[in-house]
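INFO  loader      accepted 1 record
INFO  loader      residues=179
INFO  predictor   begin
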Amino acid sequence: MAWQPDPDNWRPFPQQERFLRSPAFEKLYGGAAGGAKTAALLVWALRDVHRRGYHAILFRRTKEQLKLDLLPQAHELYPKVGGVWKGRTDSFHWESGARIQFGGLEHRLDAQRNFKGASFQRIGFDELTDFEEEQYVYMISRARPSGVCVDVEPEIAATTNPGSVGHDWVLKRWAPFLY
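INFO  predictor   done
INFO  writer      dumping tokens
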């Protein structure tokens, strides 16, 4: 079973803390499998669930991949911090009116087809090298304040392991920042 954050006792690992504290608009958390990157992404998306109208979305390439790791961890964590699952919309909702949605971008044009006109304050990609650059770049344009939630600075975050279809574009985009 994947590592699960415990909201009562959770303390980030040093690498998770660097990721969570980064003020960058775009952030990438890479490393070997099993490094708790998915958990950090789930915690990152929680940052503004107390704000009315806050809307985040977390992606895996396919809905099947969502069901394997991201959603089970979300179902373990989010109810502990007030999230209520709404399966019809694939999202958790909070009393504040905030929501964190889950989605897939299985086909190359899914981002343009399914998210035209959408706005999200946080957009996260779990395992970025599974996505095509075109999908990622398009979704960046969806990171913006909404009419209700204007006081949250939009952010993009991604986790990744080496390899997969997007390895080259991900490496090229972040190579200057790797250390």
